Amino acid sequence: MENILREGLAALGVPADEGQIRQMAAYGRLLLRANETTNLTAIREEEAAARLHFLDSAALLTTADFAPGMAVADVGSGGGFPGVPLRILRPGLRLTCLDSVGKKMDFVRGACREVGLEDVTCLWGRAEEMPALRETFDIVVSRAVTELPLLAELCLPLARPGGLFLAMKNPDCDEEAARAAFAVKALGGRLREIRRYTVPGTDTVHAVVVVEKVRPTPLQYPRRWAQIKKKPLLG
Ligand code: SAM
Hints:
CATH class: Alpha Beta
CATH architecture: 3-Layer(aba) Sandwich
Number of strands: 7
CATH superfamily: Vaccinia Virus protein VP39
Helix content: 25-40%
Largest sheet: 7 strands, mixed
Bound molecules: S-adenosylmethionine
C-alpha cells in the first residue's frame, strides 16, 4: 500500500512525507479489517483501497486551495472519504466528518484516534438537520452520496459565503450538473467548473464539480429530506 500511495501522490503532484504515507496505510488497513464485520466499503483489497479511496480523495487537493486552518466538512463521509486523506495530507485542516449512520462515524472516530488524528470531529446525523453548522465551513466536500440537485441542498447551506462546495462525481456528470443549476443558484451557489482527473495507476476518470458559495443560503433551505427527495429544486 505504501508504494502505491507514494507513487500515486507523486503522479498527482501532491507532496507527502513518509509519516503521512504510513498514516494513510495504517488507516486503510484499519478500514479493511473493520470492513470484515461492518459494512464500510465495497473495496476489499489494499491496492484498490490505496488507489480508489486515498489517491482519489487526494486528487481533490489539486482542484482547490485547501489552506491551513480552513474548516472542511465531509458530508456522507462513510468510512472517512474523502475527508480523512485530506486531513492527513494537510494537517492544518480542521476536518468534520458527518454521516447519518452512527456505526460509520464510530469507525472513523476510533480509526482516526488510532492513527494519531485526534482533532477530527465525527458527527452522527443528517447533513440537512444540523442548523448549528450552517455556513460554518470554508469547504464542503462530498463523494458518492446522492444526485447533485439533492446533494446541493445538503451541502451548500453548510458552506460560508465565499467558500466552496466540491462534489466528487463520475466523469459523465455534465447533464447532472446542468440539472443542478437551478438548485445551486437558489441555494446561493455558482457553478465554477467541472474538473476531471485520472486516478493514478488506473483507467478511472473522475470529476469534481466546483461550486462557489456566492451568497448566503435563504433560510427556508435546507428542507427536510422527505421534501428534498419529493420536490428537488429543479426549477
Ligand atoms: N463518501 C464515502 C465514500 O465515498 O466512500 C461514503 C459514500 S456512501 C455510498 C454514502 C454515505 O452517505 C453513506 O454512508 C450514508 O450513510 C451517507 N448519507 C446519505 N445521506 C446523508 C445525509 N443526508 N446526511 C449525512 N450522511 C448521509
